[in-house]
Structures are given as C-alpha cells and as structure tokens.
Amino acid sequence: MSAASCLRSEDQFLCCICLDVFTDPVSTPCGHNFCKNCITEHWNSNDQYLCPVCKETFNTRPDLKVNTLFSEMVSQFRQEAQQKASSSSSEQQAAEPGEVPCDVCTGTKLKALKSCLVCLTSYCETHLEPHLTASGLKRHQLINPVENLEDRMCMKHDKPLELFCKTDQTCVCTLCSVLDHKTHEFVPLKEEYEGKKAELGKTEAEIQEMIQKRRLKIQEIKHSVDLSKEAADREKAEGVQVFTALKESVERSLNELIETIEEKQRTTEKQAEDFIKELEQEISELKKRSSEVEKLSHSEDHLHLLQNFPSLKAAPPTKDWTEVSVRPSYEGTVVRAVAQLEELCELKKVQQCAVDVTLDPDTAHPAFILSDDGKQVYCGDVKRNLPDNPERFTYCVNVLGKQCLSSGRFYFEVQVKEKTDWTLGVARESINRKGQITLIPQDGFWTIWLRNGNEYEALDDPSVDLSLKSRPQKVGVFVDYEEGLVSFYDVEAAALIYSFTGCSFTEKLYPFFGPCLNKGGKNSAPLIICPVNQTV
Questions:
Q1: What span, in angstroms and rounded, lies between the C-alpha atoms of 343 and 338?
Q2: Burial profile 436-461: b = 16 or more Cβ within 10 angstroms, e = fewer
Q3: Contact 350/476 with Cβ under 8 angstroms?
Q4: Under DSSP, is residue 457 helix (H, G, I), strand (E, B) or coil?
Q5: Residue 217: what pLDDT?
Q6: Cys-Cys link to 444, which of 45, 112, 290, 428 (CB 3.0-4.6 A)?
Q7: What is the mean pLDDT of the chain?
Q8: Of the candidates 370, 350, 352, the residue with the CA atom closest to the CA atom of residue 360
Q9: pTM
Q10: Would you say residue 169 has pLDDT above 60?
Q11: Which CATH superfamily is domain 342-530 in?
C-alpha cells in the first residue's frame, strides 16, 4: 500500500474516540476498532459497556482482543505517513524569525500554514493534512497562522473565548456568560466579527475619502500658486511699463512696488508650501492608518480584530481643510502705487489688459449694419427681417460683443468720431433684450453716452452729467471684475472720463454698443472697435 493511498483512506485508521491514528488497536465483539486506552477509559467512565460506534450494549465487560492484521496495517500506515511527512518537510520552508512555526514538527520547525482554534495548535502543510481529510477534524475552525494561541483561552476558566459580551465589549468563554456576565447581552464571536469588519470597511472608506480630499486640496493650492505666479508676473510687467514712462524721481517707487509684489509672492509660496507639507503629513498618517485598517479588516482572526478594533475604528486626528485656501490678491497694487501720477500712466496700465473684441451679429438689432470683420456698426434706415433669437435686441438699438468676462480684467477702445449720439459700456448676460430697457447698474448696465452732440452722461443711479474738457474721438472701456470697477477713458487726451466703483459682478459681462439711430444721416458714422496702441 502506497503512502498516497493510505492518506486518502486515513479515516479508517483514526480512532473515533481520540480522532487520532490508532495506538494499540483492539476490537470489540461487534467488530469495531479502538485504541486500547481510549475504549478502556470510555468504559471506566460509564455505567454501561456500550460500543461508541454501533451502540451495542454488552452485559459484561468484553475481553478486548488485539486485531493483529489491523494493527499491522496501522503500523504500516504510520511508517508510510512519516516517510511522506519527512519528504514533504524537506520541500517545505523552515519558519523564519517572525513567522509562526508548526507546533507538531520535531527538530526543524516548518512554517505553519494554519492554526486550529479548537486544538490551539499551529500546523505546517504536512501536519495540517488530517484537518483537511479526517471527518472529525474537518469541523475544527482553521485560521491563518497566529502565535500565542493560549491567549485565546479564558484566563479565569481555561476555556476557549467563543462569545462576545456586547455589554462590556469584551471576549468571554461560555462559563463567563453564565457566571460573571449572566445578565449581559452576548453574540457569537463570528457575528460580532462581521459587524466590526463592516465598520472597519466604512472607516477605510472614510479615510480614503479624507485622503482624496487632501489630494484635491493640494492640487487646489498648487493651482492657486500658479495663478499667483501669473498674477505676480503680470503685475511686475505692468509696473515696469508704467514706471519706466515716468521721471527718474519715481524710480525708487518702482523698486519698492516690485519688492512688495515679490514679497507677497514669496509669502504666498511659503504659505502654500507649509499647507502642502501639512497635508502630505496627514496623508502619510492616513495611509498608515489605512494600511492598518485594511490589514485588520482582512484578518480572519476574530479575537485579534475585536481586540484591535477600538484603536483603529476612528481616523487619526486631522485638520479641517474646507476653508483653507491660498488666494493672494495683487489687483490694485500698481494702481495704489501710482495714484498721484499722471493719468497717462493709468491709461497705459489698463491698456495692457486689451482684448480683441468683435461684434456678435446674433445680438444685433435688425436695423444694424455690421462690417464683415465684426469691428464696425451703424444703424440703417430699414429694419431687416432677421430671426428673433433670444439673444437679439428687438426693441432698443443695441448690440453686444462676442467676448465675455467672468473674472480678471479687460480693455477695449471704440472710435466715436463724427457721431452725435452713442452709448458704450458693458452689460451682464441676463439683461432684457426684447423690450424697453433702463440703462442703470441695477438692471445690469454700466454705460456712458453722448446725446445731441454735446451732452455726456454716466448712466449711474442717479445719472451723472459729465463735463469734459474735449470731445472724445476714441473711448477706452476698462473692467476689473474682482475689484468691481468699470472705467471710461478719453484715449487721445489720456484722461479718465468716469468710473463705476464698488460694483458687484456675479454674471458674465459683455461689451455693450449703442450707435443709436442715424437721425437722417446726421449720426450715420459707425462705431469702430480699434486696435489698442500699447506703446508709451
């Protein structure tokens, strides 16, 4: 008989009392085999002489006989099984420091493959085989190998810790449940294990979400730094252009301005760097906790999970980053520095924000004539039959530009030469385009106009009459979205005409043009969007 065949039929060589290979096998009159010591102790502890297998009762204690043939078979089985174990052991890996060794191996301890919570023993691959093949041992609970299996026994009653006391949140044995904790609520370890494992899964998900939020916050901060860098570069360039056009007496002011901007940028970068370091530290701690939680959540060791659950359930303390941001503001730095300088300097500064504006034909009143390049508009004598799309002005003679602004600054210039009536400015996206409109900021318009050739007004609330030293031939329009500023300039005179300040912009802003009616040819000249000359 080969070792393989022996192991495949191992059940026939196991005593049904001790569940181990027969030692000194003897037969009862009914023909069943037992270890001599096992059946003797069994009958010594009972009032009847009963066969443990077939339950046949004997009136007198049977005279046990050694089954010579069966005894030889058992002996051969033991020998062949030992040979197989020896051969298998040479192929298996010896337990390294930190690994759980097999409790059964003699001599070189092999690495344990599983631990039995019933036997409180760890087994290598060879010695584990009976637990995988023997019917009596298959019912035992196997887990990944762990050390100190004795810790799984109740120190007070020396019984396995099989229950979880929900009242005291601790693992107990069956005797504890009827003695020390008899009024408490209990559940099997496995049931509590599943619940705690589910909670760990939720904790892991929460930690991963916290990690993701912090990664996004890092991206947000880095993006803020990039925007800050761009803003700083823009401010420095504008400062250089403005101050190089002034006298030598303002040279020192220029250097101070640049230093102020660069210091603010350095402060911003340092603040961002500190935030990023703190976030990365939190991510590191969260990853560490995530690894611990993940490892614990995959544990099949009920006791180990429950004993370590309280310390890992909650995420490590972290900072609330919701309101943390890096948002430096450079707008207005140059303006404040040169507030007392010539208005030429101010105009040249805003001209740096020039954008290429073109007229949007889909918004134009049906009487308007637009040039092919979208740069000129005047009012004709005939109202054309055009689609009445939602964007089009159908009552008031106006048109919008295609370009819009929802942040930052822009500037454009319009020639108003030879016109007696015009309106210029910006308007928000949601303005009324189909009926009578009132050009005031409350209704979404920030404009100035000319009427009757010499009446200039800023259409604020209330409107402001404008006394201009000269008749503007070209008007510049400047918008700073964040500052809430809309300014109008006489480009040739390099003079400020009017500014709307303290505006609150919440929508997209579009350039607004009103060439007005041609008045029988008196106002037939077009409004012309001009390229901005940025040379000093």
A1: 9
A2: ebebebeebbbbbbbeeeeebbbbee
A3: yes
A4: strand
A5: 94
A6: 428
A7: 86
A8: 370
A9: 0.42
A10: yes
A11: SPRY domain (2.60.120.920)
